[in-house]
């Protein structure tokens, strides 16, 4: 007699999240305070971006492409710091710089749409989830007694769905750029006088020479597919490396200035 195979399902949380669980209508959630960011924001120097964020993010951050498999696939990220674990856009209290664009990856927290996978790694479905550590009986209810969503949850749900759709479009863009072989590795290096100083590696950018050499039909496909604007937003954003370096210098000097301004206490 054949026995039924039992399948264990696992939910894969996004980067930086702790354990996530499917959101239930009776859940109460401790929502972040206005301007606050999750703990993982304090120890990252890059953060994933979606295709829809390129124009806004390009005003503040260098946008580069990262690859976890030596160039077999790519994903766009905003560079936030010039050293491991350095986020130059978050202050000591964890607040994000209010003058800079706040990526959707952060704005959606503590919610996400997570992949539910079977024991053998196959994706079964996607569920709206919440980080379990934010569940609190004293937290904010997202649904009323009749099970109807609150305006606050409707806004969060809209962001989640739009971001999920954007991630799928982002994957298609990266696949197209990879197929056209437009991405090349590059290094950012700061010179200290005549000597090489800070050096960032492991990043990819659009190779403008390869872009110019594309056949007309390939170039037209990028334009008609709405990707050319994203490509130029990425290229122009690389000028923000200089501003990022200036931000790092200003932060490094800040404690020194504060110490110099400190007046002696009179007795």
The shape, in one word, is globular
Q: Work out the strand percent.
A: 15-25%
How far do the termini sit from each other? Answer: 92 Å
The beta-strand count equals 11
Write the layout of secondary structure elements.
Layout: E1 10-12, E2 20-22, E3 28-29, E4 46-48, H1 54-57, E5 63-66, E6 75-79, H2 104-107, E7 111-117, E8 123-131, E9 140-141, H3 151-179, E10 183-192, E11 195-206, H4 208-212, H5 216-224, H6 228-237, H7 240-261
Antiparallel strand pairs: 1-7, 2-8, 3-9, 4-6, 5-6, 7-8, 10-11
Q: Which descriptors apply to this entry?
A:
single chain; 267 residues; alpha+beta; 7 helices; 31% helix
Quick synopsis:
This protein has helices at residues 54-57, 104-107, 151-179, 208-212, 216-224, 228-237, 240-261, and strands at 10-12, 20-22, 28-29, 46-48, 63-66, 75-79, 111-117, 123-131, 140-141, 183-192, 195-206. With 267 residues, it is an alpha+beta fold.
Describe this protein's structure.
This protein is an alpha+beta fold. It has a domain at 35-106 and 172-240. It has helices at residues 54-57, 104-107, 151-179, 208-212, 216-224, 228-237, 240-261; strands spanning 10-12, 20-22, 28-29, 46-48, 63-66, 75-79, 111-117, 123-131, 140-141, 183-192, 195-206. A 4-stranded antiparallel beta sheet has the order 1-7-8-2. Strands 4-6-5 form a 3-stranded antiparallel beta sheet. The protein has a two-stranded antiparallel ribbon with strand order 3-9. Strand 5 (63-66) and strand 6 (75-79) form a beta hairpin. The longest helix has 29 residues, at 151-179. The model is unreliable at 1-8 and 257-262 (pLDDT under 50).
